[in-house]
# Entry
Amino acid sequence: MITVAHTRSVNGIEECFFAAAKELIAPEDLRRAESLEQFADHVQLYGNGVAQALVRYILSRSELRVQDIAVRGHVFYATEQEFIQAREAIYRLLQSLEAQPPAPGRKKYRLFVMGHPSGAATTEA
# Structure
């Protein structure tokens, strides 16, 4: 299931970075999960695969170009409706970018978006 993606020596000890041996799970597969546990496993595998791809990209470079990557978490308060509106606005923007054809000056980017309620579940009055 995993392979060694990269190694380096740290104080005489070989440090290994691992990657998923199989392709990432397609987002459509997440929707087909038969149980919450299966869905959680798919999300974990997919998210880890995306993170590993970013690690491989960073380690394959001779210098870090922060303008080429996006790694940032955002925590905010919103109603469920406000969250859905924000999510859909992000999806619409990304879909418009996905529709653009390759052209000189354009690089192919991957942006992985994950959002969920943070902290303990709350009850509504």
Notes: The CA atoms of residues 17 and 97 lie 32 Å apart.
